[in-house]
Amino acid sequence: MHEYQIILQALNEILQPFVTRGQAVNEDTDLVADLGLDSLKVMKILESVEDRFDISIPLNVLPDVRTVKDFALQIQKLNEDG
Fold first, then answer.
1. What is d(CA 76, CA 19) in angstroms, rounded to the nearest whole number?
2. How many other β-carbons are positioned within 10 Å of the β-carbon of residue 23?
3. Going by CATH, does the domain composed of 29-82 fall within 3.20.20.60?
4. Per-residue DSSP letters for the chain?
């Protein structure tokens, strides 16, 4: 499976506890507008992502992350940069 798809699948698993029942999550899902994430939820998600992928996500990249796709691409970039 392509690395991006693996990241996307893992990210969807991490986001599930924050999804309203019956709500679909896809690449275009807006993390704030669609999922209603507040700063505390975002920090919990960041912690889970960092643990899952063994990476550190700089807080200065967060303004560029609006959708699930943006988040997955950022994780992929951080994995590649090592």
1. 23
2. 11
3. no
4. --HHHHHHHHHHHHHGGGSPTT----TT-BTTTTT---HHHHHHHHHHHHHHHT----GGGGGG--BHHHHHHHHHHHHHH-
Cα–chain-centroid distance for residue 75? 8
- pTM for this entry: 0.89
pLDDT string in tens for the chain (82-residue length):
589 999 999 999 999 999 988 888 999 999 999 999 998 999 999 999 999 999 999 989 999 999 999 999 999 999 888 6
| Contact (Cβ atoms closer than 8 angstroms) between residue 62 and residue 42 | yes
